[in-house]
User: Fold this.
Amino acid sequence: MDQEKSSQTSSCMDDYDPQSLSIDDAIKRIQSAVTPIAEHEAVSIKDALNRVLAEPVHSFINVPPYTNSAMDGYAVRSSDIPLSGEKQLKLAGTVMAGKPIAQRINAGECARILTGAKMPDGADTVIMQEHVTITGTHITIGNRHRAGQNVRHTGEDIAQGQMVLTKGRRLTAADVGLLASLGVTTVNVVRMARVAFFSTGDELVALGTPLKDGQIYDSNRYALTAMLQRFGANIIDLGAVKDNRRDIEETFNTAARQADVVITSGGVSVGDADYVRETMEKLGRINFWKIAMKPGRPLAFGKIDHCLIFGLPGNPVSTMVTFYQFVLPALRKLQGESATEFMTLQLPCVTPLRKTAGRVEFQRGVMEKNRAGEWTVKSVGGQGSHLLSSMSKANCFIILPMECENVEPGTVVTVQPFCGLI
Ligand code: AMP
Ligand code: MG
Assistant:
């Protein structure tokens, strides 16, 4: 942390220009305060999807474990491929996948072989079945074959002893399949981060209760739950807390005792009437930042003991944007992930965008293919930070840099997609 416990007189904003902090600086300060979780646990590869490896995985075997055919055809000796004209070879046996044969293929012989079947001794080349003529107990082959063709060699994919997956890797579906191909049944993964969160605000009511005048449903907690489910955290939902000192303090204490990270939404703006800021300052070492971005300008970040605290702004779009841009990289580091950068693309924007210089904007966009089959991006329309439907319609952020002003249609912009394959 770059700041000692603050008090009413020495505000957390004293250590920098309160006008604004850049996104990069905020991310740097946050990331430097995060220590990766050290505990790990063994899990079955069936439960390993999306978990982060606590140690590298090496292969105990060669993959493929034996040299085998890549085709249905005939296993031959390359020295039997004629230089010109054709040659007859005697059928000496058949090899099916899973049923290797002990018989050796001698000069002038071949074996019928199926895809994945072990190459018989003596043979080093497979001729596709479409390229031979069968006559009784013999086949005829031509001269246009390459020695060693259509054969998959022992260890060609992975050699025994080779490091296959690195520490800090978040396991994908392909990784789970790869682990199975190595015969690995369990892997050591980093313990899942425990993330507690609660909403604050007297206007919030729980789902299932009819709204009275001046009330809204607490949507942030559900969006946070969903984002954390996708990340893969142990979620501790502490509900919606009224703007009252005692409840907020009690909830913070409960949260910080059991979680690695506590996220709150609402109550961090300057001049807020509620007690979130006050309580954060009392219990921990918290910075209140005005970040040069839209949406999501106010952000509180710090620690209560060893627990990381994120006070996100309450407007639903701001909550989501600040979660993605600040909390997610921190969670990834906490979780021991080696890669924490998000993918961005450069796409032409087909709609005009309104933008003021002096802050980075995360506008909600839709990536889509145009009639010519090229990917483009367009604005979802209204960009107010209270318009949660704009997030729902969007499939990406259009990130407009600090100095950028209004964007004309056709301009290439930076796009951050929400997701890829699954
Ligand atoms: P605040 O950051 O507390 O000043 O809240 C900013 C705006 O976000 C206000 O309009 C709040 O009503 C709204 N808001 C705060 N928390 C939530 C929540 N959990 N769900 C939906 N809207 C919220
Ligand atoms: Mg509030």
Summary: The pocket of magnesium ion (ligand 2) is lined by residues 200-201, 266-267, 274, 314 (CB under 6 Å).
